[in-house]
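Input record (one chain):
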Amino acid sequence: MIRFICKKYFNDILLLLLESPKSFNELLRILKAYPDTLNNRLKELLKFDLIVSREDSDGKIRYRLTDRGTKVAEEVKKIEKILKKIEELLEG
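The corresponding structure, as predicted from the sequence alone:
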């Protein structure tokens, strides 16, 4: 699981979905990712039961965090805050 957490866009997707559900195209636009890379990462998040995909009333498929995904995203948010503080300390 640790190797998975370090993969590109893992944290970004979780934090974006913590804000609100997003479609594939919204994530693609925000992250400026390659479609194949984003698709692979979403499949991995689905496999680990961190996200679900649901069709909204407007017919668009949106990705949302599961309860487990929300807990993981909250922890990722804490880790990112700690890393930012360390970076600030190292920069002087």
